[in-house]
Design a protein that fits this description.
This protein is globular. The N and C termini lie far apart (44 Å). It has one domain: MFS general substrate transporter like domains (Growth Hormone, Chain: A), CATH 1.20.1250.20. Helix 2 runs antiparallel to helix 3, helix 10 packs antiparallel against helix 11 and helix 13 runs antiparallel to helix 14. The chain has 16 helices and no strands.
Length: 392
């Protein structure tokens, strides 16, 4: 693994510190400050909605400024937005907190492209492993994020204001690391190779299924993960237990990344994504079996592992859907779909957990999981039919 890929993996780790801490505290701060309980996860919704809103803007900036400068711009926005969130928590201003998380969405949209940028730092036959290794940086977030939230919870006398302030420091550290990464120039559309219109790219079956796998895989994960701290609080479990559950969940999301790329290389993206669907079903079954801390922990671990297989498999599958000069357009479209789905599920998470409860939230998750499995089966059968057609 080359030096630039190691540094990008570290930046991914810093990004996940931000994300895991946001997940651990935004719902609880929102529950404390929101005018109504069903608005509790609006700060989480703001973060992913901001990502969806900024996806096209980030693609434009990447074409104009290149990978490194755009990624650094995202990190500067992260510093400003987390500082704003700290101020909002300190002044108990719910809507300012939501605004801060929406602004942070620009960082979210930027860092979501780290996995694609990883493939540009290696040879084509190493792309599956590059995606996996960069996403493995999330292990840093799994370990540091929940502990950072716990350690800084009361550091500024207002609950969790110190956690937001600490994230600004983390973003500055990532900015410094990003300065040493050398990305190759992005291939841009030209008169000779203008690239296909997005509507033509998006009509491809491989595009459709890859987007479904990543979007719904991330959406279900976000739906259940965002609700977990609130559900555990409703069950009278202490925040320390919720932080432990989230730590194991995020470890399950990213530790498998050390071998997921090799599995995809050996068995193909579709079979690995199918295993991800099965793991999501196991998660839901365990979650429906009870509300002890261990049941939350096992369910969220299965959810994290299922996400890993669906997201890395879907990202790898997606690289077959575009030509080099189309990558910024196609990647922005993919992440717009992912962030839009997460926006819906993060909002639904707060509304459902506070009105319908943990059980119905899990039952409702069955629909997107089954739909994802059906999409994978459709593409597999379509490919088999194509392979069996006569060559004349």
């Amino acid at each position: 693994m080359n030096f630039s890929l190691i540094l990008l993996t570290l930046c991914q780790g810093f990004f996940l510190i931000n994300n895991v801490t946001f997940i651990a505290i935004n719902g609880l701060v929102g529950l404390n400050l929101a005018p109504s309980a069903w608005m509790a996860t609006l700060p989480i919704t703001g973060f992913v909605a901001g990502g969806a809103l900024c996806a096209a803007l980030v693609a434009k900036h990447q074409r104009a400024w290149g990978r490194q400068r755009t990624f650094q711009a995202g990190l500067l926005v992260a510093v400003a937005s987390t500082a704003l969130c700290a101020y909002a928590a300190a002044t108990r201003n719910f809507w300012l907190l939501v605004l801060g998380t929406v602004i942070a969405g620009y960082y979210n949209a930027n860092a979501g492209l780290y996995r694609f940028a990883a493939t540009e730092l290696v040879t084509p036959n190493f792309k599956e492993r590059a995606i996996s290794w960069v996403l493995a940086g999330g292990i840093i977030g799994a370990v540091v994020g929940p502990n950072l939230a716990t350690a800084t919870r009361d550091s500024l006398s207002v609950p969790f204001a110190g956690a937001y302030a600490a994230l600004a420091v983390v973003a500055l550290m990532s900015f410094a690391v990003m300065s040493f990464i050398k990305f190759p120039p992005l291939p841009l559309p030209s008169a000779a190779q203008p690239g296909r219109p997005l509507r033509e790219i998006a009509r491809q079956p491989v595009f459709i299924v890859a987007v479904i796998g990543c979007s719904l895989g991330y959406g279900v994960m976000n739906l259940l993960m965002a609700a977990t701290p609130i559900a555990m609080a409703q069950c009278s479990h202490p925040f320390k237990s919720a932080a432990l559950v989230l730590e194991w969940h995020v470890l399950a999301m990213f530790v498998p990344s050390f071998f997921t790329g090799s599995l995809i290389k050996r068995f193909g993206a579709l079979p690995i994504m199918a295993v991800g669907v099965a793991l999501n079903l196991i998660c839901i079954a365990v979650a429906l079996s009870g509300v002890d801390v261990m049941q939350f922990l096992v369910a969220l671990a299965m959810l994290g592992l299922g996400w890993n297989f669906l997201y890395i498999g879907g990202t790898t599958l997606f690289t077959e859907a575009y030509r080099p000069e189309e990558k910024t357009t196609a990647q922005a479209a993919m992440d717009f779909c992912v962030f839009s789905t997460m926006t819906v599920t993060s909002f639904a998470s707060g509304a459902l957990i506070t009105t319908q409860g943990w059980t119905w939230l899990n039952v409702g998750s069955l629909l997107p999981v089954v739909f994802t499995g059906a999409a994978l089966l459709w593409l597999a059968l379509r490919r088999r039919s194509t392979q069996n057609q006569p060559a004349f």
